[in-house]
Design brief:
This protein has helices at 19-32, 54-67, 90-96, 116-127, 145-154, 163-167, 172-180, 203-209, 219-231, and strands at residues 2-6, 36-39, 42-43, 73-75, 79-81, 104-108, 131-134, 158-162, 186-188. By secondary structure, the protein is an alpha/beta fold. It has a six-stranded parallel beta sheet with strand order 3-5-6-7-8-9, sandwiched between helices. It has a three-stranded parallel beta sheet with strand order 1-2-4. Helix 4 links the parallel strand 6 (104-108) and strand 7. The longest helix has 14 residues, at 19-32. It is globular and about 50 Å long. It starts with a strand and ends in a 13-residue tail after the last helix.
């Protein structure tokens, strides 16, 4: 499996506190069968993430994982806040794209219900050559959520839910309903530490999506094929439609 949303880089945002924590997160990934983790530190105004340092930091973490004999690799990326997207130049945008390919960006909606501005941001990114993976829709519940996501998907975006919130909890029924209408394409851990909060784990969320009839035949695409294509910088078309 491939996790496209994880705050595994140590000491850079509100994710892994230090290298020991990051290595412990990689242990969690390995135990869950995750082979690749995309490091996606917050790219937004309340975190002082220096984009020019990301490649070096990922290399350092991969060396540490090799030293520990862990069968997990870390790819480059960032979680780009909707409100910060317009301020990035082309070099910075490519550097925080998933695996640095410049083709896909993990896009974080602004707090609250999703509005017109997210579609405008995704459209502007696409004009710059980058398609969007919309992060954690479970945080943005509203009566218009399905409509807003449908609009984004129609313009080439994919939707990523957080595994823990599909597996269980109060948000799970709404996320599974979205999945049943074809509005869930990817699952991420959005893990921040091995010491507290969500683990680096996808399998529970994938299992939950397997109970959705429309997705039951597409779990490998969700867990492996689509994320791998994204990291290769390829276009990705969901094998299931959005229900009318």
């Amino acid at each position: 499996m491939i996790d496209l949303h994880c705050h595994i880089l140590p000491g850079i945002d509100d994710g892994a506190a230090d290298m020991d924590d990051a290595v412990a997160m990689a242990h969690q990934a390995a135990e869950d069968g995750i082979e690749t983790v995309c490091a996606t530190p917050h790219i937004r105004h309340d975190h002082d993430v220096r984009i020019e340092e990301l490649e070096r930091r990922v290399d350092e973490l991969n060396r540490a994982l090799d030293e520990h004999g862990l069968p997990v690799s870390v790819s480059r990326g960032g979680e780009l806040a909707e409100t910060a997207a317009a301020g990035l130049d082309s070099r910075e945008l490519r550097a925080i794209s998933l695996d640095g390919r410049g083709r896909w960006v993990l896009l974080e909606p602004a707090p609250g219900p999703i509005g017109d501005s997210l579609a405008h941001t995704a459209r502007a990114l696409r004009h710059r050559g980058a398609r969007s993976v919309i992060a954690h829709p479970e945080r943005h519940a509203s009566d218009e959520l399905a409509h807003r996501l449908t609009e984004l998907v129609s313009e080439g975006a994919l939707v990523q839910v957080t595994a823990a919130f599909v597996e269980g909890g109060p948000a799970a029924p709404a996320m599974l309903e979205l999945a049943a209408t074809g509005l869930v394409h990817l699952v991420g851990s959005d893990a921040h530490s091995a010491r507290a909060g969500r683990p680096v784990r996808l399998s529970g969320g994938i299992d939950a999506l397997g109970r959705v009839p429309a997705l039951a035949g597409h779990l490998d695409w969700i867990a492996r094929e689509a994320p791998a294509a994204i990291l290769r910088g390829e276009d990705v078309a969901p094998p299931f439609p959005v229900a009318a």
